[in-house]
Amino acid sequence: MAQTTAGKPADFTGAFGDAKKQASGVADAFTDAAQDVYGQARDSAADLADTAQAAARKTAGSFETALRKTVETQPYMAVAIALGVGWLLGRMRRPL
Fold first, then answer.
1. Cα 68 to Cα 74: distance, rounded to the nearest angstrom
2. Which backbone phi and psi does 3 adopt, to 5 degrees?
3. Are 9 and 2 in contact (CB under 8 A)?
4. 10-73 and 75-93 helices, crossing angle to 10°
């Protein structure tokens, strides 16, 4: 049986070295996988933000178009609503 200088068998030292290399390989693989997942999540979040921004622009455009059409077709109703909202906002700023 071969002995090392520390009195431990050579097989144990070799096995420990192999286990250390395997653990290092697993850690490297885990790090690579984590970086890939982070990159994919970042890309997905950017895509989602772009989609939400486009939807918000479309909705704002639709609201503006609907409001413009309502004001053009029913101007007296639009003025009455504006006066009512203005009066309510004014009443909120001062006591009765």
1. 10
2. -120, 145
3. yes
4. 120
Cα–Cα distance between 7 and 1 in angstroms, integer?
11
Encoded amino acid at 65, one letter: T
Output the tens digit of pLDDT for each of the chain's 96 residues: 445 555 556 676 777 777 778 878 888 888 888 888 888 889 889 999 999 998 888 888 888 888 899 889 999 999 999 999 999 999 888 766
Give this prediction's pTM.
0.44
Rounded Cα distance between 67 and 71, Å, is: 6
Q: Could you tell me the two tokens for 59?
A: 């909705």
82 touches 90 (CB < 8 A): no
Tokens of 25: 């390989």
3-state secondary structure of 95: coil
Within 10 angstroms of residue 75's Cβ, the number of other Cβ atoms is 10
